[in-house]
């Protein structure tokens, strides 16, 4: 399954506000036959959101998964997610890397476990501001890719989310042509380093809203978006999905 527009709610939502979100989304989405749009609510709301979206095409994923199961207090395994009907997970978000200390090697293990379980992954990479200023973005991204993915057989649906850390939640985004060129670079590196020469879809993440979505989605190598803040509003998120649907190619 190829997912193009994914909302990352982070640690937000409530039983009540999730219902209003669905209401707003439902009445704002133009095409009720959506199949490539997804939301990642916190773990505790996965079950509720799966029930609330059962008659919508919206997919529900988790924001993270553990690399294993069993004696790992506080963690959520892939099988637990699959069990309730969750079909994919974000892995390697920069907040997991920064706040929870997740390294490229640790994320590689999560990816291997997910691949073994046939569980789809949206794998996040992205450079900090210092790398962007130093002009070393590509070197940084290449290291993230090689250390986490090299020589793995990537499953259909495996997707990269390119999220420059300095663009997340700041209202700043890189030059659109630079994003497009970076996506092409990412596709080439994943293709040449994965065992099965897999070319992934690459989503852009970092301050995407309904205001900048149209210009982003016109670019050849931008296959969609991972959206944080703007996904918390059902109407705004539906608007971005509508813009993607009408992007014209
Ligand atoms: C994110 O955290 O994945 C993200 C892209 O956030 P925002 O859209 O708020 O920049």
Describe, in plain words, how this protein is organized in 3D.
The mean pLDDT is 96. With 249 residues, the chain is an alpha/beta fold. Helix content is 39%, strand content 13%. The two termini are 19 Å apart. It has an eight-stranded parallel sheet with strand order 3-2-1-8-7-6-5-4. The radius of gyration is 17 Å and the shape is globular. It has helices at 15-26, 46-52, 78-83, 94-99, 104-116, 129-134, 137-149, 176-193, 213-217, 234-245; strands at residues 5-8, 37-40, 59-60, 88-91, 120-125, 159-162, 201-205, 225-227. Helix 5 (104-116) crosses helix 7 and helix 7 (137-149) packs parallel to helix 8 (176-193). The structure holds phosphoenolpyruvate. Phosphoenolpyruvate binds at residues 8, 163, 168-169, 205-208, 226-230. Phosphoenolpyruvate (PEP) binds at residues 8, 163, 168-169, 205-208, 226-230.
Jot down its keywords.
249 residues; TIM Barrel; 8-stranded parallel sheet; 10 helices; 8 strands; globular; binds phosphoenolpyruvate
